[in-house]
Amino acid sequence: MAQDDWLADRFEQHRSHLRAVAYRMLGSASDADDAVQEAWIRLSRSDSSAVENLGGWLTTVVARVALDMLRSRTSRREEPVGEVPPPPADTGTFGAEPERAAELADSLGPAMLVVLETLSPAERIAFVLHDMFAVPFDEIAPIVGRSPAAARQLASRARRRVQGVAVAPDDRGRARRIVEAFLAASRNGDFGALLALLDPDVVLSADADAVRVGASDLVGGAKAVAESFSGRARAAQLALIDGQPGAVWAPGGKPRVVFSFTVHDDKITAIQLLADATRLGELDLVLLAD
């Protein structure tokens, strides 16, 4: 196999993860694909033989590209009305797949996207990398040009903003009933009930620790997600996760995996599995009776 083909194959192994990272940072599927394409260009021009952890190296590159794009957006807001940004470059071999773009677009609820847009570029990068992908602060610090302590403060400020989004009690109550129904359908193996609760383009994602214990890193579409849960989640308990309805697997009372749900228009649009011990320790978890 030619060197270029071998490198492209290695890049392909990380592409879904990179696009997920970029989308959560940028909130735009097309911008996310541009950031991933730039990561490929930089990899193809680098001496990859010196890279020990390719996934981590690519994640850092995508984060730095996204940070530049976010800062560019901030600058453009100050330009006179009527300035039209250039169209996205053709992404060629690593271009967007419509199905994947739809999955990523629904992996963040509309309210979350609105809040993320209010964060500074550095806050957004720190929050997404740490809270959504469990990247340590000592790795985030050089990306945002701060010390690890300052990077932690950036993420903390962002987290407070995100958690401060008002959710009406009625909405929270409906979300809890939907999560309860989902857990019951999962335990009973009721495939039809699971499908009825899931948005057609629902996305199931998992952090690296959850993947290591058997979860898939990214599953898209109601049928595939329903198949992943049908007959399972028997040990998961209903819980409040930072005040929002979700579920926790806590053998012996110790949380091991958190199931975070995004509910929109009475449908589950995203489920995120978190198993990173540090991240779990930062969550406000309250176990509830089913």
Describe this entry's structure for a reader.
With 290 residues, the protein is an alpha+beta fold. The chain folds into 3 domains: 1-96, Orthogonal Bundle (Rna Polymerase Sigma Factor, Chain: A); 108-166, Arc Repressor Mutant, subunit A, CATH 1.10.10.10; 169-287, Nuclear Transport Factor 2, Chain: A (Roll), CATH 3.10.450. Helices cover 56% and strands 15% of the residues. A 7-stranded mixed beta sheet has the order 2-1-6-5-4-3-7. A hairpin with a 2-residue loop joins strand 3 and strand 4 (244-249). The chain is globular and about 50 Å long. The model is unreliable at 77-107 (pLDDT under 50).
Provide tags for this entry.
Nuclear Transport Factor 2, Chain: A; Arc Repressor Mutant, subunit A; 290 residues; Rna Polymerase Sigma Factor, Chain: A
Q: What coarse outline follows from CA principal-axis ratios?
A: globular
How many E strands?
Answer: 7
Estimate what percentage of residues fall within beta strands.
5-15%
Q: What is the CATH class name of the largest domain?
A: Alpha Beta
CATH fold node name of the largest domain = Nuclear Transport Factor 2, Chain: A
In the residues, how many domains can be counted?
3
> What Rg, in angstroms, do the CA atoms define?
19 Å
- SS class: alpha+beta
Order of helices and strands: HHHHHHHHHHEHEHEEEEHE
Strand order of the largest sheet: 2-1-6-5-4-3-7
Corresponding CATH architecture of the largest domain: Roll
What's the rounded overall pLDDT mean? 78
Biggest beta sheet attributes: 7 strands, mixed
> Can you tell me the residue ranges where pLDDT is under 50 for at least 5 consecutive residues?
77-107
The rounded distance between the terminal residues' Cα atoms is 55 Å
| Number of distinct helices | 13
